[in-house]
Amino acid sequence: MNAGPLSDAPDPVPISALQHLVFCDRQFALIHVERQWADNPLTVDGKALHEEADAGSRETRGDLRIVRSLSLGHSRLHLVGKADIVEFHRLADEEEGVELPGATGRWRPFPVEYKRGRPKSHEADRVQLCAQAFCLEEMLGVPVPAGALFYGKTRRREEVTFDAELRGLTESAASRAHELLRSCTTPTAVLAPKCRSCSLREICRPEAAGRSVAAYLRRALSTQE
After folding, report:
1. I need a labelling partner for 193 at 20 to 30 A (CA). Which of 2, 24, 58, 128 fits?
2. 202 exposed, middle or buried (CB, 10 Å; 0-12, 13-18, 19+)?
3. Considering Cα of 164, then 76, then 14, then 53, what sign does the dihedral take?
4. What CATH number did the domain enclosing 26 receive?
5. What is the pLDDT of residues 78-121, one digit of tens each?
6. Which domain holds residue 63?
7. What is the pLDDT of residues 17-36, one digit of tens each?
8. DSSP-derived pairing of the beta strands 156-161 and 146-151
9. Would you state the torsion angle of the CA atoms of residues 15, 16, 19, 22, taken in this order, to the nearest 10 degrees?
10. In a domain, 150, yes or no
11. Does 170 map to a domain?
12. With the CA atoms of 206, 39, 114 and 52 taken in that order, what torsion angle do they form, in degrees rounded to the nearest 10?
């Protein structure tokens, strides 16, 4: 019996992988193409903070409902993952929102991602959060205009608006992630200040970037004379 053609759809990419890619596409490839990983104190702190966010499932506080560890997916961008927290805020009757089981009125989803450290100058954390918004919009059929990043060092939230620029960056990151996975490509290392905080620094060896093999051999042979 002919089972029909196999799907050529790519395997889904973890939403959290987009954070790796925007921070450094080589880091993304080392983790998700070459399957290499190493913890450092920063990643251990991050895991502890996520466990704090996951310590429970659902909670209701008046006009606020909180759901933890909500599974997410997006069919067009081929993304899967989990939201640390999705808050549902009750809306006025005329506002567009989602209906929740056992609750009256309509509610707007508001994703919250927990991060260690402080707010960052790059867009990696915001892209990861925006990808969660894309998933919630597709799954629930309602707009998700904003969310928040909660940073463990400051114990404060940074609200993020999902504007056209951030949405475009997020879609580009998803496309780049699939491209690297499809081609099994690991980009060349580029030494930068951010390398100091990377848990894969010893695997990546960015200090060696740009050094020629000939120069390396000359130095190595000169030490043996």
Report:
1. 128
2. exposed
3. positive
4. 3.90.320.10
5. 999 999 999 999 998 778 899 998 888 999 999 999 998 889 88
6. 13-186
7. 999 999 999 999 999 999 88
8. antiparallel
9. -50
10. yes
11. yes
12. -170
Q: In 8-81, which ranges are continuous DSSP H helix? A: 15-23, 25-32, 41-53
Instruction: Work out whether strand 13-14 and strand 146-151 pair parallel, antiparallel, or are unpaired.
Output: unpaired
The pTM of the full predicted model, rounded to 2 decimals, is 0.80
**CA–CA dist 200, 26 (Å, integer):** 10
Q: Is beta strand 79-90 parallel, antiparallel or unpaired with respect to 107-115?
A: antiparallel
Residue 8 lies in a domain: no
Number of domains in the chain: 1
> With the C-alpha atoms ordered 46, 133, 168, 151, is the resulting torsion angle positive or negative?
negative
Q: Which of 124, 120, 135 is nearest to 27 (CA)?
A: 124
Does 159 fall in a domain?
A: yes
Question: What are the Cα distances from residue 9, in Å, to 6, 34, 182, 213?
Answer: 9, 21, 11, 40
